[in-house]
Amino acid sequence: MIVAFSVTPLGVGEDVGEYVADAVRIVRESGLPHRTDAMFTSLEGEWEECMDVVRRAVAAVEARAPRVSLVLKADIRPGVVDGLTAKVATVDRYLDEG
């Protein structure tokens, strides 16, 4: 499965990068395939693995912020591996063709 999620601390002011870094650190230390961009972090693995990482990422932000917002989207597709790369490669192939 692929999980795209965003953890945002609320009530800490406008500069939230330090708090978000706490969440991203959890993802990177998980050892699961992942990508982080300006809006979301995508993570690939089994249901239990991904949900555990999301839970711990939220907890890391929650430890320092009075309120936390979580946005989560999941692509649950058993048997698919390397979806983070394959999905992008498919779109790139279509773009190259035409």
UniProtKB/TrEMBL annotation:
<dbReference type="Pfam" id="PF01910">
    <property type="entry name" value="Thiamine_BP"/>
</dbReference>
<dbReference type="GO" id="GO:0005829">
    <property type="term" value="C:cytosol"/>
</dbReference>
<dbReference type="InterPro" id="IPR051614">
    <property type="entry name" value="UPF0045_domain"/>
</dbReference>
<feature type="domain" description="Thiamine-binding protein">
    <location>
        <begin position="3"/>
        <end position="91"/>
    </location>
</feature>
<dbReference type="InterPro" id="IPR029756">
    <property type="entry name" value="MTH1187/YkoF-like"/>
</dbReference>
<comment type="similarity">
    <text>Belongs to the UPF0045 family.</text>
</comment>
<protein>
    <submittedName>
        <fullName>Thiamine-binding protein</fullName>
    </submittedName>
</protein>
<dbReference type="InterPro" id="IPR002767">
    <property type="entry name" value="Thiamine_BP"/>
</dbReference>
